[in-house]
Structure formats: structure tokens, C-alpha cells
């Protein structure tokens, strides 16, 4: 029966499971991505995302709470300095799990778990530039932008003769 089984126990006792997740979380924070099995990656995602949320507000209380889970002062420092600075405006979903196939030895499903904001390939090199999507405002903005673009060529026309006079003055 599975009464009261809220999370995957990963076939480990409580102390071993907590230590393993703490070590994996510290490795994820340090290296920004790690390779592991799919089951461990899903368990790690549930473990580390609340800690990243706590790191957004840098208080002594939050640092101590995170330290009780990670048990590594270097991991806590890295989390509150670098990771929190990148994910400060993100409302959630700090990690991404990418399935990679099966392991050769025991055919276990493997996955790569990574911090979303530290992968420039999926972000397309863009950093925090999001456009507001609205259907009604788009038409009004385009009609207002058209007269502004028409006025710009008129302003540039008088500048063209002025730029042609400069080379003649420099030639003399």
C-alpha cells in the first residue's frame, strides 16, 4: 500500500536519502547542471526549488534554513550570491530536466538537470527581455508608430546635404 507516501523514497533510508539530495543539490548549485537518473532528478527538483525560492530574500534566517538542508556553507554562499541574482525575477521553475537515454550498465533512464537561467543555448542568448503580449494594444501602437517613421525620413533629408558639405571642407 502507498498510504501517506508523498514523495519518492528512492529505495533508501531517510538519512541516506537526505544526505544524497543535499550533496546533489550542492553539486547542482556549483556546476549549474548534473547528470543523474530520472527518478533522482525529479526528487532533486522537489528538494532544491524551495531552497532557491528562499535564496531570493537574503536574510540570516533564510540562510540558516537553507544551511540545514544543504549542510555546505560554500553551496549556501553560491546559492545566495550568484544563483539568487539570476533568478530574482523568475516566479518559479528554476530547474529543467532533460532526458538523455539509458545508461549502458543497467539500462537506467538518465537525465540532465540544470538551472534554467544558466543555459544560454535554450535562452537564445537573450537575457530578461520579455515582450508584453496583448492583441488590442498591438494595432494601436502600429498606427502611432507609422507617423513617427514617416517623420524620420524628412528629418534625415536635410542632414544629407550637410554631410556632403563636410568632405568638401576637409578636402580644401
List the helices and strands and how they pair.
Blueprint (H helix, E strand, L loop, with lengths): L13 H18 L1 E5 H18 L4 H11 L2 H14 L8 E8 L6 E7 L4 H4 L11 H37 L1
Antiparallel strand pairs: 1-3, 2-3
Helix pairs in contact: 1-2, 1-4, 3-4
| Strand residue percentage | 5-15%
Structural class: mainly alpha
The number of E-state strands comes to 3
Characterize the quaternary organization of these chains. Answer: single chain
Question: Brief description of this entry?
Answer:
The protein is mainly α.
Describe the 3D structure:
- By secondary structure, the chain is mainly alpha-helical.
- Helix content is 59%, strand content 12%.
- The protein is built from six helices and three strands, in the order H-E-H-H-H-E-E-H-H.
- It has helices at 14-31, 38-55, 60-70, 73-86, 120-123, 135-171; strands spanning 33-37, 95-102, 109-115.
- A three-stranded antiparallel β-sheet has the order 1-3-2.
- Strand 2 and strand 3 form a beta hairpin.
- The longest helix has 37 residues, at 135-171.
- The protein starts with 13 loop residues before the first helix and ends with a helix.
- The model has no long low-confidence stretch (mean pLDDT 83).
Amino acid at each position: 500500500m502507498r498510504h501517506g507516501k508523498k514523495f519518492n523514497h528512492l529505495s533508501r533510508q531517510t538519512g541516506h536519502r537526505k544526505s544524497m539530495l543535499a550533496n546533489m543539490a550542492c553539486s547542482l548549485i556549483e556546476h549549474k547542471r548534473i547528470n543523474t537518473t530520472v527518478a533522482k532528478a525529479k526528487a532533486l527538483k522537489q528538494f532544491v526549488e524551495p531552497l532557491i525560492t528562499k535564496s531570493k530574500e537574503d536574510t540570516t534566517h533564510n540562510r540558516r534554513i537553507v544551511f540545514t538542508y544543504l549542510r555546505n556553507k560554500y553551496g549556501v554562499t553560491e546559492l545566495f550570491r550568484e544563483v539568487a541574482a539570476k533568478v530574482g525575477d523568475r516566479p518559479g521553475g528554476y530547474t529543467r530536466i532533460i532526458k538523455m537515454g539509458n545508461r549502458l550498465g543497467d539500462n537506467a533512464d538518465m537525465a540532465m538537470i540544470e538551472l534554467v537561467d544558466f543555459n544560454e543555448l535554450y535562452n537564445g542568448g537573450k537575457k530578461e527581455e520579455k515582450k508584453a503580449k496583448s492583441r488590442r494594444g498591438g494595432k494601436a501602437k502600429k498606427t502611432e508608430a507609422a507617423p513617427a517613421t514617416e517623420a524620420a525620413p524628412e528629418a534625415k533629408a536635410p542632414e544629407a546635404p550637410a554631410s556632403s558639405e563636410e568632405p568638401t571642407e576637409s578636402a580644401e
